[in-house]
Amino acid sequence: MKATYTKYILNFKRPSGTSRGIMTHKETWFLILERDGNLGIGECGILRGLSADDVPEYEEKLIWLCKHIEGNKAELQAELKEFPSIQFGLEQALLSLESQNPFELFPSDFIHKNAPIPINGLIWMGDEQFMLSQLEDKLKEGFRCIKMKIGAIDFKTELSILKSIRKNFSPSEIELRVDANGAFAPEDAMVKLNTLAEFKLHSIEQPIKPKQKEAMARLCGQTPLPIALDEELIGVFDVTEKQRLLQTIQPQFIILKPSLVGGFQGSREWIEIAESMNIGWWVTSALESNIGLNAIAQWTYTLSSDMPQGLGTGSLFTNNFESPLAVRDGQLWYGDGTVWKQNLIKDLCI
Ligand SMILES: O=C(O)CCC(=O)C1=CC=C[C@@H](O)[C@@H]1C(=O)O
């Protein structure tokens, strides 16, 4: 088996803001495997500034992996333990290589019977007009679940946007989720959660910065609206550490980004622990291209969750890869598999 890798820069159609900053482009890497004329591809979707493997030796690790690709699985996993996005890229590439069609990793009704995955519509940070126009678009596109980024502009403005939604749509008509990306100070968080709860929200993601376990546990113990841990899971690799974290904080939900938590394997570990503690979960992209998003979507469908997932990010980029993935009526569909460009993998090798 031969392994190579290549870097690719995804360009956002428009600057996309969260309380952590504005993104205009996103770096990603592809691992390509070749054996007996068959090709496999996996996306190593690092998120600079957020991923645990955002380290200077990232490319070196890819070089090491390509040299040792025929090494034993346990040795590879041990070496990649602290490189979750490369672990995920390898998982995808091996499944892709084994599969008849390198883009069909998890055969299911999603691929073969046009069965969709419910997703949330995403509203990025910006001024009130910009956020309201995104909202209008999402409602027109038939989304029944909206996720709004908060924490970067004036809280009052964010509340007035939520108010304008609830004035027109009840909780059974529109499920509302917000994502603070850790923007609230622990001492202000409870007051803000009480205020937000008035809008009958489904949940809030990461209200305060990660690694403030006691403060987060207090919030989860008293909160009037469900709290979902997102950034909090980053960098927690051991199963015992995962158990300890969820036991200490006891959140209502966790959010799984396979590229940040160690792929399918790492995500499954979190799901098992969460379910044993009656903690809910859902899956989101980490802004991968359609190659990584495709793998995440196919896997997510096999988990049979009826919750809306965070997989509506394929249309963010000007230079994404043509794919059968399509968003319609607030759902993600897998259309005609022949849409994948014939020599896409070969072209990426060059
Ligand atoms: O949850 C979604 O609908 C899509 C994924 C998403 O919002 C994010 C992915 C990666 C980084 C962030 O920009 C953001 C998040 O914080 O969840």
UniProtKB/TrEMBL annotation:
GO MF entry, a single one:
racemase and epimerase activity
Which of the seven top EC classes does this enzyme belong to? lyase
InterPro entries reported for this sequence: Enolase-like_C_sf, Enolase-like_N, Enolase_C-like, Mandel_Rmase/mucon_lact_enz_CS, Mandelate_racemase_C
> Which GO annotations describe the biological process of this protein?
amino acid catabolic process; menaquinone biosynthetic process
Record's PROSITE patterns?
A: MR_MLE_2
Task: Note whether Metal-binding occurs among the keywords.
Answer: yes
Q: Does the keyword Metal-binding apply?
A: yes
Which residue numbers delimit the Mandelate racemase/muconate lactonizing enzyme C-terminal domain?
A: 128-226
Report the EC code(s) recorded for this entry. Answer: 4.2.1.113
The record's section on PANTHER family has: O-SUCCINYLBENZOATE SYNTHASE, O-SUCCINYLBENZOATE SYNTHASE-RELATED
Supply the name of the protein.
Answer: o-succinylbenzoate synthase
Organism of origin: Flagellimonas flava
